[in-house]
Amino acid sequence: MEVRNNNKVNLCFSFDNLRNELSRPYGILFINNKIFLEFISKSIQRGSRIITVGDYVSRVLEENGIVPFLEVIDGKTKRTITQNRAITRNKEYKVTNEAGKIRFEIFEIMENILKDREGGVVFVDGEEDLLVIPVTLSANHGDIVIYGQPNAGAVVIIVNEMIRWRVRDILEKAIVKEC
Question: Is residue 55 part of an annotated ligand binding site?
């Protein structure tokens, strides 16, 4: 086990063994943008915070006048570099996360960011896809977590104890490896 000089353990959860399970949507799959945007607008009116994981879903909301409380992006859509963002935020964070993994430290980072009342943008050097897991575990009850389902639409997770249980179940099946 490698310990960095900043006293953080260099371990990751690896999900290679869970590709099939993770390819299914873990929330409500919206295939119609109009219905999706109406749902998000009503959720905001009810006081839910909107958290996006992925460049495409973040951009769709922004283009429709909805600025998420927190965006987790890596600058790519389907592994292709996306255009620069039009909206800047007061708080911007940078993290590193390898494809197909979640670094242990990301859980604490997301928890701290989601405690902040201002939200912001998390720029991921690497890949953000699996960061739905720590975001969902750290989000408040009733928060809305959105991620893209490639070639299908947007998946909306309404955070509650049942979904946290499902996410913990996935996490327990992951393999711990050195990053």
Answer: yes
